[in-house]
Amino acid sequence: MGLDVIYTEDLEPMEGFELRFEALIEYDSPDWDFESEEERKKLIDDINNGHMEWFCAHVIASIDGIQLGHTYLGGCCYKSYAEFLKEEGANLAAEAIKAAKETLHTLAAKEKLIC
Fold first, then answer.
1. How many Cα atoms occupy the beta-carbon half-sphere of 10 within 13 Å?
2. CA gap 58, 22 in Å, rounded
3. Could you write out the DSSP letters of every residue in 18-84?
4. How far apart are CA 41 and CA 24, in angstroms?
5. 2 exposed, middle or buried (CB, 10 Å; 0-12, 13-18, 19+)?
6. How many Cα atoms are found within 13 Å in the side-chain-facing hemisphere of 36?
7. Are residues 60 and 47 in contact, defined by beta-carbon separation less than 8 angstroms?
8. Which strand (E) or helix (H) includes residue 56?
């Protein structure tokens, strides 16, 4: 784990890719349009007291431990990482896999130039 990683979880493999979710420290404060200052303070208190998770999501697609693609989503605020993964995990996994396939395509094209 890197210094900014606060949670990690291996996800179910998809399309031949290993997938890993990492929650990274989110350094920005929530900047949504709140109904009131009281609502904003309550959310900050919930985050600070561990009732809500505030993080930047990172999903990595790899083969045999070699990272080929990844994607990020910042400003995530959920009651749990499990809740986040249930709602957003499939979308982020698809984005990471798409990036991994693009990497493989680029590598294959370079291989043709070398041969």
1. 6
2. 5
3. EEEEEEEE--SPP-S--S-HHHHHHHHHHHHTTSSEEEEEEEEEEETTEEEEEEEEEEEEES-HHHH
4. 22
5. exposed
6. 3
7. no
8. strand 53-63
Is there a contact between 46 and 53 (Cβ–Cβ < 8 Å)?
Answer: no
Instruction: Scan for tokens 């400003």, then name that residue.
Output: 75
Contact 2, 48 (CB under 8 A): no
List pLDDT tens digits, range 23-46: 999 998 887 778 888 988 999 999
- The residue type of 31 is D
Q: Please report the pLDDT score of residue 68 as a whole number.
A: 97
